[in-house]
Amino acid sequence: MNFFLETIKVLLLSIWYNVESFIYFFVPKKKKNIAGEVVLITGAGGGIGRLMAQEFAAYSTVLVLWDINQEGMKETARLAKSNGASRVHYYICDCSDKNEVYRVADQVKREVGDVSILVNNAGIVTGKKFMDAPDSLIEKTMDVNIMAHFWTYKAFLPAMIANNHGHLVSIASSAGLIGVNGLADYCASKFAAVGFAESVGLELLATGKDGVKTTIVCPYFINTGMFDGCQTKWPKLLPILNPDYVAKKIIHAVLTDQVYLLLPRSMYLIAGLKNVLQWKLRYLFGRYMELAVEIDCHKRLSAH
């Protein structure tokens, strides 16, 4: 195809995609049926992981829960069963350990079957300035928040590709789009999570596997205890998010094959501004918005 024809094609498709987005702004997308799908959620022992499990359960899914907190998973399993899950299985799994991820993944495939919706939710934050953070905690942050995504994809994506059917959900953070003062290691891990999910999603499209969908979730601080003590300067613009609201929005994004979910909606504007403002203006804007996390926001190593 010559340059002229390819350019015309791109322009016409660009117009169509924008018209399509405009239509969907007023006409809700049809939700897909996920009854019977095998949904694996990491970090399911509490917080957003537990709430997502309850939401997915309402659609008669088969749930697979991973966490290092067995008692927490038992409670999540009980709540999910009472909310309509067809089956619930739970496994102790330290997602920071590659060999354990592969071992437990093989067990899941033998006992439950192929996972068709993978939700990488497990995450930790150290709560220390970069120079104060021990190397061991930085390594743990990277292992849980991003390296675990590599290993779970390696374990479960082949079956999705073979069937051209599945959904990859990455629970990242707004800190994966905008650097935050006081969260250097956390931001690095979440930037990596966003980039990794985007890249694999593009690989799938390029190889014709458009039946395997991707959803990347980037919320502001959620009131789950992970950022206890943190406050927002402008709660109308950047509120601390309610966990139930976030969980419902995530499931809606999955059901409608939404690729990017930024919460609150103001994050779309803020993330866009980051890409056009020069460095000093970004710093000034960050100070104005108080896009910083002080060390006293963190009482301990936290997980969601």
Structure description:
There is one protein chain. This protein has a seven-stranded parallel beta sheet, with helices on both faces. It has a two-stranded antiparallel sheet with strand order 5-9. It has a single domain, classed as NAD(P)-binding Rossmann-like Domain (Rossmann fold, 3-Layer(aba) Sandwich), CATH 3.40.50. It has helices spanning 3-26, 47-57, 70-82, 98-111, 135-163, 184-206, 243-255, 266-274, 279-289; strands spanning 38-42, 62-67, 87-92, 117-120, 124-125, 166-171, 212-219, 260-263, 302-303. Helices cover 48% and strands 14% of the residues. α2 links the parallel β1 and β2 (62-67). It starts with a helix and ends with a strand. It is built from nine helices and nine strands. By secondary structure, the protein is of the alpha/beta class.
Topology:
Elements: H1 3-26, E1 38-42, H2 47-57, E2 62-67, H3 70-82, E3 87-92, H4 98-111, E4 117-120, E5 124-125, H5 135-163, E6 166-171, H6 184-206, E7 212-219, H7 243-255, E8 260-263, H8 266-274, H9 279-289, E9 302-303
Parallel strand pairs: 1-2, 1-4, 2-3, 4-6, 6-7, 7-8
Antiparallel strand pairs: 5-9
Helix pairs in contact: 2-3, 2-7, 4-5, 5-6
User: Regions with pLDDT < 50 over 5+ consecutive residues?
Assistant: 294-304
Counting DSSP E segments of at least 2 residues, the number of strands comes to 9
Secondary-structure element string: HEHEHEHEEHEHEHEHHE
Number of domains: 1
**CATH evolutionary superfamily:** NAD(P)-binding Rossmann-like Domain
